[in-house]
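Marked as duplicate of an earlier ticket. Keeping the data here for the record.
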Amino acid sequence: MAHYRAPETKREQFRRYLEKAGVVDSLTSVLVSLYEQPEKPSNALEFVKEHLNSGGQPATDTEALQQEVNDLRQRCARLADENKDLKSRLQHYEPEDGAIADAQSV
């Protein structure tokens, strides 16, 4: 009998863990939202995935953040190009290592 009791204890611990982490509330919220949809989506699993991934953030916030990421990536690329250009200009004005050694030995 004690062997039969152990899995229930683990199951109960896992349930409490999910409740404490907010997983049960999130799933319940998404499922209630699905239930309350006037027209049920053709792909219920996709609906659940989308609503779980949103994390409570409105779609406009997500879109704004995605736009900001794209803008920052473009800025990073421009800065990398500028850095490359400036390094090449600097090489033009700096003497080569061999020229420095020759000038010092004279």
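See parent ticket for discussion. The mean pLDDT is 83.
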